Amino acid sequence: MRERAKRYNSMDYMKGLMCIAVVLIHANFPDPLGQALKAIFRLAVPFFFFVSGFFLLESDLTICKRTILRKICNIVKILFQAGLFYVVFTNLKLLVSSESADLREYVAQELDFGSIVKFFVTNDPFVYSALWFMLALVYGYLTILVFSPGGGVQAEQNMPCCVHGAGLCRIFSAD
Questions:
Q1: Angle, nearest 10°, between helix axes 65-96 and 103-110?
Q2: Model confidence, pTM
Q3: Distance (Å, rounded) from C-alpha 44 to C-alpha 39?
Q4: Exposed, middle or buried by CB within 10 Å (0-12, 13-18, 19+), for 170?
Q5: Which of 20, 81, 159, 174 has the most CB atoms lying inside 10 A of its own CB?
Q6: How far does Cα 167 stand from its chain's mean position?
Q7: Which phi-psi region, left, alpha or beta, contains residue 30 (left: φ > 0; alpha: ψ -120 to 50)?
């Protein structure tokens, strides 16, 4: 039987505050105070990268490839569901705005070979960019998988891979 995961209440509180900060990044505050607040709120995104890395660690301070693969699968499921929601949302928006609601025409216009390649190379979504962070996490996890030897590697041995993965995530993020 699997051991029950330990709760980190302080981490839960910080995640809650950082969720609010992510929302506030997108708010318009008056200058110059607004720019200072946005700079502070932008700490939320790196915080979530650190939290993602923190929860990769097993109790023996190893990073298990099976855990990374499970996280990647969970993220891909969420992205797929969000994509389906977005297709429905876009069609409803087209119907309400009395524009052409032909899904085939919309897909042909938005999804060409270049946009698909751009999506995977630069994490630049086709239209809807709110979930860029999740795909950036997948890129980071894949980087760790590629550069990690064996099935489970000690965290301190894997630190360059984690830093490299976080750097790649930032480079490929559509901010």
A1: 130
A2: 0.66
A3: 10
A4: middle
A5: 174
A6: 14
A7: beta
